[in-house]
Amino acid sequence: xxxxxxxxxxxxxxxxxxxxxxxxxxxxxxxxxxxxxxxxxxxxxxxxxxxxxxxxxxxxxxxxxxxxxxxxxxxxxxxxxxxxxxxxxxxxxxxxxxxxxxxxxxxxxxxxxxxxxxxxxxxxxxxxxxxxxxxxxxxxxxxxxxxxxxxxxxxxxxxxxxxxxxxxxxxxxxxxxxxxxxxxxxxxxxxxxxxxxxxxxxxxxxxxxxxxxxxxxxxxxxxxxxxxxxxxxxxxxxxxxxxxxxxxxxxxxxxxxxxxxxxxxxxxxxxxxxxxxxxxxxxxxxxxxxxxxxxxxxxxxxxxxxxxxxxxxxxxxxxxxxxxxxxxxxxxxxxxxxxxxxxxxxxxxxxxxxxxxxxxxxxxxxxxxxxxxxxxxxxxxxxxxxxxxxxxxxxxxxxxxxxxxxxxxxxxxxxxxxxxxxxxxxxxxxxxxxxxxxxxxxxxxxxxxxxxxxxxxxxxxxxxxxxxxxxxxxxxxxxxxxxxxxxxxxxxxxxxxxxxxxxxxxxxxxxxxxxxxxxxxxxxxxxxxxxxxxxxxxxxxxxxxxxxxxxxxxxxxxxxxxxxxxxxxxxxxxxxxxxxxxxxxxxxxxxx
Length: 592
Hints:
Residues 331-396 have low confidence and may be disordered. The protein is of the alpha+beta class. 37% of the residues are buried. Helix 9 runs parallel beside helix 10 (310-328). Strand 3 and strand 4 form a beta hairpin. The longest helix has 19 residues, at 310-328. The chain is elongated and about 90 Å long. It is 32% helix and 22% strand.
């Protein structure tokens, strides 16, 4: 084929593909424009997950009427004059591509007015074709309305994800910018429902409370460090508050949200040896650096940066985060009683509400009735009786009867069987026990629910709240009684009786925190996966001291499981050291 120049509409759509990947990309570009314009109030409205409408209104300085048409043209910007300016970028936008790219794949309307003008101006752009500028009445600022996104590129429209996923992406984006710019008042409306509203009073911790709930906001650790031309501020979570993925690790560099691997690695190095494998902190950190020391002109989306002194930045972020973490987190100490002497009957590390001794007494019912009378008729214990229900056959063999020896490191239970020594991971084992009980009840379609003495109020981030709202009937089927209780807030009135005594808010968060971006929340989940997710969060933890009765009860329940050798996620619950292997190791039986 002969070489030819592309037409303007084709080249515009190709460029738009780099800048406008999804509705959240539009929200990002327009929000950054509003912040560059000095806006103190940003109002965002979306319809049909952004496919039908995205409208961003701000009270910034606006666009003069005679520059409105130029603003929608490609490579037109007020933020750069010469090439040297690229190395001193102090604004969020600078490429002059955003409005032109958005206008080429949508029906876009720009309405704006500057303070010195008596009236505003309006420009409509349909698929990259601009109309005439009209004079209209308008307040100072800009309203940018994007309708029918990707209407002229149906292939791009087809590859968008589900409405829930696209809404979650928008909410996650605006949440980050609300934290980065606490002096700006943000409001997001999804259809007719507000999903996010901040006060704009500069209090970042208050924004954290609105997003994650008051209890989570109280736990967040403040980071404040500066030196050698660098400044790092923000919040990181203590080691007790983690997530199963890195989605809530957020970095801003000079006010710009970036996805920089080296910064994430530096943060995780600060938590080295302090977190369980596969757990990640909640983080919102803001790095300030001289503009000439960072290159933001790496990718059209401006989400990637390059540092002039990579090692220096890495060390600074790691050191500042570690300092804050250790300053607020006391060093754990092990009681000498764990290594000898008599152990007290009760331990402070026991999980509230769990009585492992029940379910193994001959007079079990009388004990339950006694406990109910102490709690006004409400049982506050886990039922850990051995399973009698026949479950689906498994290739994993059962374990023999085990004799308890003791506990190591408050994490592993040592037991003796007829064929050798067994080391049992108490967390994985309890996961398996809870999972098989819950699934057995589910198969019988009789998951008993226990009403809480006082309802628990749980606040979730907007993106997680959306994932949960449409699935409340499904949760009720699983023994939860959950209802909406305000914006992004839910009230837990009851939970499965199997988890009685556990933390309702912890269980509810477990249902939504692990969703992948392209995952249809809950409805398309395999029910066993959902059950495993909850059981993992509510099982006893490693490092939790158990009494001899509790250890023995766990072993008995594990023996009764159909698949006792792995947890529901496939991790082994135990390690077996046969007598034959022990004899070989000690040189009693042939060569090693």
